[in-house]
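Invent a record, attention on tokens:
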Amino acid sequence: MRGTKRDSAPGISVAADWFGELPGAQLQAFRGYAKELETAYLMFSVSLDEAISLHEKAFLMDSSQVLIVASALCGRFVALVEDMLRSQAAHCRDYGTNPSIALLDPADFRSPRSCRVALRSLICHRALLVRESQFRNKIQSLTSLVRRSARDFCARVESFAPHGVITDSPELWEAMNAAHFDLNTCLRELMVMLKCFLRVLPDVELRSFQETVSSNNARHSGRPSTTVHVPAVRYSSRSY
């Protein structure tokens, strides 16, 4: 049965917003930001895969050197995620934007610490009756999750010396894999949040949001703040 127009109206539900269409400008923004985030994650993920492959072949020194690169790429990826979360939070605070929100599921995370953060977020979400408060709760929870997961990953990398292995154990690699898995989960949550946010974002507020994102990114990159402009190309949103 085809859904009614009300069923697919922006802000009605996360499912409606995720499968619903975005206006042209918002769709271009979503594609541009999604590509930047996915590229940063892919670079981090590929470098970790390479380190694992080298480790399995007993090239321990080479593996430890690639892990140092992976750690730096992890930091770059997490900075982009935090910037996007911070930008959405600031815009909702200043403009009263009210996007739909999905609850975090502890089963979607691997490390015990991340599971506890997700569970606490879930309990708080159900206790909060105002959507604005629920949105702030999820922003804070995801920010905590990406920071903790990145910190855990980088701490494990520091167990490797630049010129050889100080600590090498299955538990060490399992912890790095768990942090990587949880960072991927956070990215998927952010993608859904971003599309839900853009679905309820009026055209007149899009430029302001882009400027906020650019300003936050510039703080990390050291480059002058510039508004993100994405190519004027139309895409179908059905793949998301």
Q: What stands out?
A: The mean pLDDT is 86. DSSP finds seven helices and two strands in the chain.
